[in-house]
Amino acid sequence: MTHLLSKSKYIRGLQCDRALWLDVHNPRLAKYTREQMQRFDRGREFEYAFKDTFPDGIDISAELKRNVDAYPELTAQYLDGIHTPSPLWGTPPNLGGELVLFEAGFLYDDVLVLADVVHKNADGTLEVYEVKSGTALSETYKRDAALQHYVISHCREVHNFSIVHARYAGVSPATGYADVPSAETIAGETPAHPGFAIVDLTEELAAQHDEIARNIAAMKDILRHGEPATPTGQHCLSPYACPYQHYCQQGVRQLALFG
Q1: pLDDT reported for residue 40
Q2: Which regions of the chain are under pLDDT 50?
Q3: Cα atoms found within 13 Å of the Cα of residue 237, Cβ hemisphere only
Q4: Rounded to whole angstroms, how far apart are CA atoms 214 and 186?
Q5: Are 169 and 134 in contact (CB under 8 A)?
Q6: pLDDT score at 187
Q7: DSSP 8-state symbol, 91
Q8: Please, where are the H alpha helices in 2-119?
Q9: Domain interval for residue 240
Q10: pLDDT, position 196
Q11: Enclosing H/E stretch for 120
């Protein structure tokens, strides 16, 4: 089953109706700066570092690559203990018992989310970790996590959902982390995950389900119609610089030239 929205498209839709429409219907128009690409790379490196603290984790993306619409089915098979272990994994997972999945896929309400780390407990409930490379929680991080909680909790029972972010304000090439803690008080750092702040937001995220359902319905309605004529403005830069700015601003320049 194909999906209509994803985490990134949902966040894009909260920022701008037109950017959402372009992301779904004409994504080839997106242009990312070198700085944006470098930020993406830093985020992936931080995510990989956290995943390394789960040496027995099974990476769904390693089996399915870009076939993201197949992720939910394979994820369900692993969680239900009915999938034959891939030769990619040296040690077969404890199917039917506890296991850890990377990039686990869940689909609900036409929204596909890929969770960074999912730990299935012995009782079948899930512990979900969303990994962010920033040194403090942001509202955008929380909105991203809230969407994931909404989707995943409609597919499986979520025991807890945490955001993982950097424990330190800088990164040292020698040690991997600087000696300066981030400004935020950290309660979640554990010996098993040094350098990472783990903040449980389960209750806060669950309280946002009604709002998220309304947002998704509104975004689906936008995507059923033609391209919105949303004007450019400050929203083009916050919370992220929009990759469609050049396209929208080109239209403004053309109107100014021929108006």
Answers
A1: 86
A2: 171-187, 189, 191, 253-259
A3: 3
A4: 33
A5: no
A6: 46
A7: S
A8: 7-15, 17-25, 34-51, 60-64, 71-80
A9: 5-258
A10: 86
A11: strand 111-120
Per-residue model confidence (pLDDT) at position 81: 86
Residues in Cβ contact with 51 at an 8 Å cutoff, skipping those fewer than 6 apart: 57, 102, 116, 117, 131
Cα dist from 221 to 22, 216, 226, whole Å: 14, 9, 10
The C-alpha atoms of residue 214 and residue 58 are separated, in whole angstroms, by 34
In single-letter form, the type of residue at position 29 comes to L
| Residue 144 burial (CB count, 10 A) | 20
6: enclosing H helix or E strand: strand 5-6
Say which residue the tokens 């030239």 belong to. Answer: 257
Contact between 24 and 223 under an 8 Å Cβ cutoff? The reply is yes
The string of pLDDT tens digits covering residues 76-87 is 999 998 866 666
Q: Are 135 and 165 in contact (CB under 8 A)?
A: yes
Three-class SS state of 213 = helix
Residue 131, token pair as written in the block = 């990994």
Q: Which two tokens stand for residue 137?
A: 């929680």
Copy the structure tokens of residue 139: 């509202």
Q: Helices (H), strands (E): how many in the chain?
A: 9, 7
Number of domains in the chain: 1
Q: Judge contact between 48 and 37, C-beta under 8 A.
A: no
- 70: Cβ contacts below 8 Å, ≥ 6 apart: 64, 105
Beta bridge partners of 165: 197
Q: Which two tokens stand for residue 217?
A: 């319905």
